[in-house]
Amino acid sequence: MRRFLSLPLILATLAQAQAVIPFWHTAGPPGNTVLEEAIKSFNKSQRTYRIEARYVGDYREAGVKLLAALRSGGAPVLFHGELSFLPRLAQEGVALALNPYLQNLPRDLYPEMMRTTQVRGQTYGLPLGLSVPVLYYNKDAFRARGLKPPRTWAEVEEAAQRLTSRTSKGLVISTDIWSFNAIVMSLGGSLVKDGLPAFTSKEVVEALEMLYRMVQKGHAQARNLAEAQFAVADFLRTKAFMGIGPTTALPVVLAQTSLPFSVGVAPLPRREGGAVPLSGAALAVLKGASPEQARGAVAFWLHFLEPKRQAEWVRTTWYLPLRKEAERELADFLKDPERQAVFAQAEVGRPWSQDPELVVWYSYLEEALERSLKQGVKPQMALEEAQRKAMGVERR
Questions:
Q1: Do 22 and 74 have their domain in common?
Q2: Number of domains within the chain
Q3: What's the average model confidence in pLDDT over 93-118?
Q4: Bridge partners of 79?
Q5: Stretch 211-216: mean pLDDT, rounded?
Q6: Half-sphere exposure for 119 (CA within 13 Å, toward CB)
Q7: Where in the sequence is the signal peptide annotated (predicted)?
Q8: In this structure, what CATH number is given to the domain that contains residue 29?
Q9: Is residue 333 in a domain?
Q10: Which of 144, 167, 217, 391 is exposed most, by the fewest CB atoms within 10 A?
Q11: Cβ burial 128-143 (10 Å sphere, 16+ → b, else e)
């Protein structure tokens, strides 16, 4: 007699045949909706792989949780983390090199964006969301004072002075490494040279001296990482009229609140020869993953890169499109001249952190920034101390 398998048994058999890929991600609102749709769509589109996703907090929270899981067990196969974290994962042998699985990529991927996930010539990650910096400004305040969006750092200083009043500052400054590095790169400099910290290089000193000057004159307010929410509040409550952030910052704010004024977006002022950082996050396949799971991770990423889905991702999050084909779907989105100018910075975008040691060094730099901008220590002195501490780690 022929025996028929029950439906639950058939489903169980199919599930066993699938390569299950546990996935930790950091996508919060509003981008989480697009990512979650892509995961559901991918799982329904084929039977070879299954993504099992879990939200694990923002970049820093996720990094802490991953390190704990790597020590105690229970780490995922696929991890969505901040770009500067990836080189360290590669150096420690935690992230797998993906070159063998990247043989048939779409030809319209932007090469410079693909370089963001390379470490010493090997690809250790899959770029998921890349952004460029923006100079955000209060359009109403600028209009009232007859100001135009600054195109140079000298114009930023002048605008900060004219916007400052008894109750408000012209500019709010964050002392985190990303914001400061964006200014350094715009001046043509780098925080790392030849694999070593370059905290006392000409452009780094120049960048901090400029910020120090504005703070000392009372034209700018400095906020450290612990005060990040206050930095945003300063701008939203018109306690400051300019600020630097990634393209993705505005959609996050607009998803949570309505603004009482018009927000302007402008490219970051940039000296000739300067660049802007391509920052954001990437997918990493972690050690212990089987070849089939690695292939599944790449297959999911390619599914996410489908042009229409990419266009929806860009509209929702203001991340850069990773494929040229997606731009055809974004003609309406890029009609706005300010938005178009901001997104055009991708042409001068460069990977901002491909040095594994930077995650060890940057705490010394952030400490120097805070000591200088919040405690009044001279920029050169603060940076020299940070350089000594970083070099001390390097020699151990």
A1: yes
A2: 2
A3: 94
A4: 24, 284
A5: 98
A6: 26
A7: 1-19
A8: 3.40.190.10
A9: yes
A10: 167
A11: bbbbbbbbbbbbebbe
Examine the fold and report which residue of 306, 327, 346 is the final residue of a domain before the chain moves on: 346
Same-domain check for residues 87 and 186: no
Same domain (yes/no): 115, 150? no
Neighbours of 49 (CB within 10 A): 21
* Alpha-carbon span 368 to 390, nearest angstrom: 11
Q: What is the pLDDT of residues 142-188, one digit of tens each?
A: 999 999 999 999 999 999 999 999 999 999 999 999 999 999 999 99
CA separation, residue 155 to residues 152, 182, 269, 270, 299 (Å): 5, 17, 9, 11, 47
| Side-chain half-sphere exposure of 69, counting CA atoms within 13 A | 19
Residue 273 lies inside a defined structural domain of this protein: no
Return the residue matching tokens 């058999």: 13
Question: Domain for residue 337, yes or no?
Answer: yes
pLDDT band, very low/low/confident/very high, at 356 (cuts 50, 70, 90): confident
Is-contact 254 29, C-beta < 8 A? no
Q: Are residues 382 and 258 in the same domain?
A: yes
- Domain check: are 140 and 121 in the same one? no
On whether the CB atoms of residues 101 and 125 are closer than 8 A, the answer is no
Closest CA to 332 of 358, 312, 359, 346: 312
Arithmetic mean of pLDDT, 66-93? 93
- pTM to 2 decimals? 0.91
What range does the domain containing 310 cover? 13-130+279-346
**248 in the same domain as 313:** no
Q: Rounded to an integer, what distance in angstroms lies between the CA atom of residue 295 and that of residue 99?
A: 11
Asked if 117 contacts 79 with a C-beta cutoff of 8 angstroms, the reply is no
Write down the residue that tokens 């043989």 correspond to: 103
Q: What is the mean pLDDT of residues 300-308?
A: 97
Q: Sort 395 into a burial class: Cβ within 10 Å, 0-12 / 13-18 / 19+.
A: exposed
Q: Report the distance separating Cα 94 and Cα 89, nearest Å.
A: 5
Check whether residue 325 and residue 366 sit in a common domain.
Answer: no
Which DSSP letter does residue 52 get? E
Whether residue 4 lies inside any domain: the answer is no
Tokens of 158: 């002048």
pLDDT per position as a tens digit, 266-296: 999 999 999 999 999 999 999 999 999 999 9
